[in-house]
Amino acid sequence: MRDQIVAGNWKMNNDQIQTETLLERLKTYEIPNKVRVMVAPSFTQLSQSKQLLNGSSIKVAAQNMSAAPSGAYTGEVSAGMLKGIGVQIVILGHSERRALFHETDVHLAEKVKAALASDMEVIFCFGEELEDRKAKAHFDVVEKQLKNALFDLETSAWKKIILAYEPVWAIGTGETASPQQAQEMHAHIRNLILNQYNPSVADEVSILYGGSVKPNNAKEIFSGADVDGGLIGGASLDAEDFMAIVNAF
Length: 249
Ligand code: 13P
Prior knowledge:
Blueprint: E1 4-9, H1 16-26, E2 35-40, H2 46-52, E3 59-62, H3 79-84, E4 89-92, H4 95-100, H5 105-117, E5 121-126, H6 130-134, H7 138-150, E6 161-165, H8 179-196, H9 199-204, E7 207-210, H10 218-222, E8 229-232, H11 239-246
Parallel strand pairs: 1-2, 1-8, 2-3, 3-4, 4-5, 5-6, 6-7, 7-8
The structure holds 1,3-dihydroxyacetonephosphate.
1,3-dihydroxyacetonephosphate is lined by residues 9, 94, 166, 171-172, 210-213, 231-235.
């Protein structure tokens, strides 16, 4: 059975003190055995978070990574550097990276390969914009994003891939995809993987939903047969809200 996952993408929030406060609060909650819980702090707080979560089942992920192993890339961080501090998971392809930092499918395909070459797990984000949905192009847009970045991976690489469908119009807007819209898209995604690979890859890959998931809507969204959890932005900054979502399956 595939993993149920709730991951908190802190984005550019939580300095040293706020990180300690939030993680100490998260540690007071019992984590259900069946759910993999992750938090993704800023690069500067990764080591601190690893230390604070030592002995906890909450895992630490990075929010981004360079495709290059080392060299003249000012401001970048490599897979080897992340692994060196024990970070084994990385979020790639977030819509904010695509929109604000011009990351393309081609660039993301390179980053995914670099992460996998370092045996890291990848939370790969993708999703359509509002105009795409209005034009009823959302299924095609998502298919293209997956094809361009992931569909030339070997079958075995998919053990390390977690998908996160995040419709751009639902991120930070308070507007979520309806549970039906989320399930419909997740089923479409699983079917694309089935057609490209095989039933076991399609069955085993966890597909998370992201975009204004809150304690009051998580249960309904997670009830979709193909929705295996969530990638949480705003609500992951509050321990009580985040843990309510962790317990929403
Ligand atoms: P919000 O939950 O704040 O909408 O953010 C979603 C997101 O972008 C997670 O990566």
